[in-house]
Amino acid sequence: MVDFKNPSNSLGLKIKSNILQIIYRFVYTIFEMINPFRKPYSRIETSREKIVFILVFGLFIFLFLFLFKPFGLAQLKPVSQLFVSLGFGLVTIFMLSIFKYLLEPIVVKENWTFGKSLLWGLLIASSIGVANYFYVSILFPQIFIFKYFLYAIWTAILVGIIPVTIGYIISFNRIYKNALREAAIPPEEVLWENEVIIRGGNPKNECKLNPKSIVYLCSNDNYVTIVTIKGEVITKTHIRGTLKEAESELKNNTSFFRCHKCFIVNAEYADRITGNVQNMKIKLKPQGLEIPVSRSKAADAVRKFR
Length: 306
Prior knowledge:
Blueprint: H1 7-34, H2 47-68, H3 78-107, H4 114-139, H5 146-184, E1 196-198, E2 207-209, E3 214-220, E4 223-230, E5 233-240, H6 243-249, E6 256-260, E7 263-266, E8 270-274, E9 281-284, E10 290-292, H7 298-304
Antiparallel strand pairs: 1-2, 3-4, 3-7, 4-5, 6-7, 8-9, 9-10
């Protein structure tokens, strides 16, 4: 409301309000720029890396409990300490296996951030705590007490902080080294032939094409389908043969990438990669086609289409 008796006072309040709004927007913008929780955090984990992580985490829990004997473990007999601690390690391995192999492929998307990763880790630790509570309830039957239930979750989070922190440090260090290595690699020169003849290993075939027009190739039993584009028209040509032989016939054209046992894609038509190592796909520009990537080729695909 304007102060008609003292207009200069009303004008001063409006100026102060505008200045405060500018300062707020400036601080908010700076925070958004440096906020680590919004930074992208996506790392391709191979099946071997997942197994190692799960086993090392479970081993750490077992050794930590057995050697330091916290949470009343010291009151048990030595043999009981060993088997109870081992049980906690196995419970951890079981829960991590569920999250890593069943839930992460569904939940973790390409827009994953560091903040989401921390929340996901907190959920995993809490779930391990819940499983630990029921494990203890089986070993030492007792009525359900909500306070002890929360205590089990809290202790699982506290104990898990150490291996999780070490895992994040190793992960960030690996991402940093990969980024430096890729930055030092000059762009790959793409080589093309003016014309390629694809026979698929069958001398009766003679499919002459401009390799730049090939979007992708796929195999189905003893047949190879060659998908080409001219303008906006996509054409499919079927020949009898094998994808392995077709790949060999395209070897002088460096833009082609065998991403799957049944697919070869032309990198020139790749738009982006979606999903993670479990369900990775290469999205092609023509018509938004999605080509699957096998787990063994996931890391190569990330490097190829980075």
